[in-house]
């Protein structure tokens, strides 16, 4: 069962974490774990913790438990703790402490047109977040509104939902940059494969031109000459655009366990789920004494349930895709190593140039295929990590 957090707590996620770790290690050591995590990450000592901060601390504790108690027990503990944390995140919004002078600051200036089109959603999300933060600050400072608990809770969920929307677009921006880098390297791999293919085709053309008396030789020769011309044309067009040394970079092999239950936090913290939860809390405030009997509340509950189902399906498909890329990468990486050994063996034994060129071309093609799987895996993992941690980069559009 999840450890409950006090509704009146100003730092409910820290309280939950203390209680959860205290059950396992004692209150004093639980405090030490939290302080060490705060210091290691450079957080402010008085920082109010949210679910993603708690995930970071749980990961630290997991590493310690795995070293001291074995991987099986550590895995079970992390799975239980992550599931309890996800349940807590469904009921307790991330505490928000607007700056004291937020209402004295001028409202954001109108956005200047002429910006890049893909910048606008992030800019709009940031404006919505500032508006939500100002609204919450107004409610808390108003003598009458501050007494309306349901209105205050709705405003807190609104701030969290707008924060998640900002994070969504920051993650999209980060992924767009990552995909651009990956695309460049993948083109470089194609250029390197074309170089190897040119080498093989030149040797093949030379060998076919030397043949006499074979009826199919002229047709084979013409075909290989055509392929050689096409491949050289490809190199003329694309080789100047890339740094071919990038094709020799080692393959990225992410060592990550995609079974971890902490990814379940991606459902309650999904932007659409948080927006639907805000809608439910706002409907409850408007319903007054009718509460859950009110039709708008029932509709909001339906919207929330649908959002949770869709978020769970998206999370599941992302994890499954990542697992598929992980498995394909492992298989292709093994094939690349096998080809490297075969090429070395041929070189040592003085194998013929044509056979060695075939192996080199196959090696280049296998590396290119493995790189694609590694890149898709990295993109999927970055998306998953953005849902449950603070790993997404923040774009600067100011």
Explain what you see.
- The chain has a domain at 1-95.
- Helix content is 71%, strand content 0%.
- The protein has ten helices and no strands.
- α6 (149-210) runs antiparallel to α8.
- The chain is elongated.
- The two termini are 45 Å apart.
- Keywords: Coiled coil.
- It comes from Deinococcus wulumuqiensis.
- This is TolC family protein.
- Residues 145-211, 297-387 form a coiled coil.
Provide the descriptors you would attach to this structure in a database record:
398 residues, 10 helices, elongated, single chain, disordered N terminus, disordered C terminus
Task: Describe what is shown at a glance.
The protein has ten helices and no strands.
- Report the strand count: 0
Task: Kindly name the structural category.
Answer: mainly alpha
User: Which percent band covers the strand fraction?
Assistant: under 5%
| Unreliable parts | 1-7, 390-398
Return the string of H and E elements.
Answer: HHHHHHHHHH
Q: Which overall shape is indicated by the principal axes computed on the Cα atoms? A: elongated
State the end-to-end CA separation: 45 Å
Discrete helix count: 10
Keywords: Coiled coil
Organism: Deinococcus wulumuqiensis
Protein name: TolC family protein
Fold blueprint:
Layout: H1 12-25, H2 27-40, H3 51-69, H4 71-91, H5 120-141, H6 149-210, H7 217-238, H8 271-287, H9 295-349, H10 353-388
Helix pairs in contact: 1-2, 3-4, 5-6, 6-7, 6-8, 6-10, 8-9, 9-10
């Amino acid at each position: 069962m999840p450890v409950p957090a006090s509704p009146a707590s100003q730092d409910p996620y820290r309280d939950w974490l203390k209680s959860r770790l205290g059950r396992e290690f004692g209150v004093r050591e639980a405090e030490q774990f939290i302080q060490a995590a705060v210091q290691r990450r450079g957080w402010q000592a008085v920082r109010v913790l949210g679910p993603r901060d708690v995930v970071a601390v749980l990961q630290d504790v997991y590493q310690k438990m795995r070293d001291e108690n074995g991987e099986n027990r550590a895995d079970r503990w992390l799975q239980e703790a992550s599931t309890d944390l996800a349940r807590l995140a469904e009921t307790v919004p991330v505490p928000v402490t607007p700056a004291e002078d937020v209402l004295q600051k001028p409202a954001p200036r109108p956005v200047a047109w002429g910006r890049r089109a893909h910048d606008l959603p992030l800019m709009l999300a940031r404006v919505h977040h500032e508006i939500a933060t100002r609204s919450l600050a107004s409610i808390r400072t108003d003598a009458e509104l501050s007494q309306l608990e349901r209105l205050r809770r709705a405003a807190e969920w609104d701030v969290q939902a707008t924060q998640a929307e900002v994070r969504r677009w920051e993650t999209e921006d980060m992924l767009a940059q990552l995909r651009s880098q990956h695309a460049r390297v993948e083109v470089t791999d194609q250029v390197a494969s074309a170089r190897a293919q040119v080498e093989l085709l030149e040797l093949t053309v030379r060998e076919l031109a030397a043949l006499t008396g074979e009826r199919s030789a002229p047709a084979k020769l013409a075909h290989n000459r055509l392929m050689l011309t096409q491949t050289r044309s490809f190199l003329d067009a694309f080789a100047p655009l890339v740094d071919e040394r990038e094709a020799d970079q080692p393959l990225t092999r992410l060592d990550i366990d995609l079974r971890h239950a902490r990814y379940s936090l991606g459902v309650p913290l999904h932007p659409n789920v948080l927006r639907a939860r805000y809608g439910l809390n706002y409907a409850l405030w408007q319903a007054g004494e009718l509460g859950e009997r009110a039709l708008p509340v029932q509709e909001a509950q339906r919207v929330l349930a649908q959002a949770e189902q869709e978020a769970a399906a998206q999370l599941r498909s992302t994890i499954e895709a990542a697992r598929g890329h992980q498995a394909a990468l492992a298989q292709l990486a093994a094939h690349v190593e096998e080809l490297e050994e075969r090429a070395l063996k041929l070189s040592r034994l003085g194998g013929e140039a044509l056979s060695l060129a075939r192996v080199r071309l196959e090696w280049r093609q296998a590396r290119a295929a493995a790189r694609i799987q590694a890149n898709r895996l990295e993109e999927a993992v970055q998306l998953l990590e953005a849902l449950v941690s603070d790993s997404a980069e923040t774009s600067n559009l100011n």
